[in-house]
Amino acid sequence: MTTAESLEKLAALSRQYGADPDYVFLGGGNTSFKTDSELFIKPSGVALATIQPEQFLKLDRESLRKIFTMAPAMLAELREEFVKNIQLSAVRPLGAGRPSVEAPVHEVIKYKFIVHTHPALVNGLTCSKDGKAAAAKLFPKAIWLDYCNPGCTLSFTVKEALDAAEAKNGAQPNVIFLQKHGVFIGADTADEVAKIYADVMDALKTAYQTAGISTDDVEMGTASDEDLAEVAPALRTLLADEDGNRAIVHCVGNSAAFEGPLTPDHVVYAKSFAFRGEATAEAIAAFKAQRGYLPKVVEIPGKALFTVSQTLNEARSAAIALANARKIEKLTAAFGGVNYLTEEQYSFIENWEVESYRRSVNGGASKTRLQNRVCVVTGGAQGFGLGIAQDLIAEGGTMVLADMNFEGANKAAEELNAKYGKGRAFAVAVNVADEDSVAAMMAAIVREVGGIDLFVNNAGVVRSGSVMELSLKDFTFVTNINYLGYFLCCKYAAKVMSKQMTAKDSPWTDIVQVNSKSGLEGSNKNGAYAGSKFGGIGLTQSFAKELVTSHIKVNSVCPGNYLDGPLWSDPVRGLFVQYLNAGKVPGATCVEDVREFYMSKVPMHRGCLPTDVARAILYCVEQKYETGQAIPVTGGQNMLHA
Hints:
The mean pLDDT is 93. The N and C termini lie far apart (82 Å). By secondary structure, this protein is an alpha/beta fold.
């Protein structure tokens, strides 16, 4: 079999296990294939579930083996840096990528194909008090390695154990159990690896069944909307970072957190210990003083269980680690109960440079103007709303696209995630004119991210026509969406935002209504729309005066005409067609006449664009001394009066 064919086999094997949560969670684990002179291994930051043959990193084995001739004599504090540099120097071509920290382990295992994973069924054994004795009974041909720190120390430990086993038995074992760290399985063909894995998992399933331990996931329970509304928004502020950026607080249910640190991966993604108790500023401060960090898992007994981070993707990752930890804790009962990492062991992981790199690959982001603030845009599935969302997410916002067209909003969110990264956007369904729907939208947002930093009330409709001809149905429709909908959204957004104010110096939040130039002056044969927008500015000014005590700024931005958007350009219901049919533009005989008429009114001679509105929204957010304003964004068509 050629090297190319072997890499195809390795990639398929990697995807098989990498995509299966029974074997791998959060991109952990590693695979490799070796020839006489080269080692091909999964690089850091690449997921097993999607890896392709060309993504495996090639290392020169002779260069890599220098680790075992030079490093042992070095001081421990110098050795990790030395080994890292040796690994980088072994990459071919140089600089092609960062090899897995476990590359030296793969080098000393002589089999051609190696798959290292962290199955919960395996870690129920490796994280248990009697795991070593149970492994010897269940898998007599395997070797068990007591816990040692990851990195080069693990490499030397594995090499020593394999050399001893080979000297005793004439060959290396195919299975290596690492206490609190999963399993390595090696063989000379991919099919052999798969067969050995299946045998190991079958034996463990039988052992759990015999012990009466279910191998199902642990049920996490369900938190009520009422409890979430009470505790999640405040928790966001209490767990803000050093710059005052509120945390993402993601509800995973109503259950117990894990009791302690199980494996390096759990420490990396969910920290060593969870916070448990009533969430107060004093309690959070005490936890940080004791542990040296803010918690990533928070249990409010009897109410809710949360995972916490500065990004939704990281909070969701912590949720996966939490669920995995709870399952492992349950499984260890088959082998004498849980054996947690010691303080020395988990402290090493918390401070390990390699794990810091993995965290940065998983979801870190540089500081931006909105810096992971939760930004909700109603009417976000298309048009102005989607355009605004695209600009806000580019400035670092975590976007919530709210729309009656949930399918369209969800598709738009998926596209934003593909461009900006996992967990940067999600969709919720809402009819802004229906109070129950608005309440449900807010509850869904609080459940997913804990609260809101910026609420953009963008959803709006137009039905034009003469006051003598416009139907009550159309007038009511416009008023319900543009005016009543704004009231309802403010009502429920403010309830959430006000609970985020936990102290006098809590960060401000923002409600911004996308109003219209028609909210600044009347609009001929468009009274329903203009009236709803005039009323909206009245709401903005009134709400601003009331909500300022809750550190909520309320402003309106008043765009000119988005002539290229669907509101205007739709060939059936667009405003060009409506205004032409309503005779709003004297002498107009076609849509182009209507378009030119409106272009001629703008000194800058173009329509307003979503990015123009997004810049005005950012001004509202960043201006610390402005509330209750209606800001024209009209290219000079409407100007503030002196």
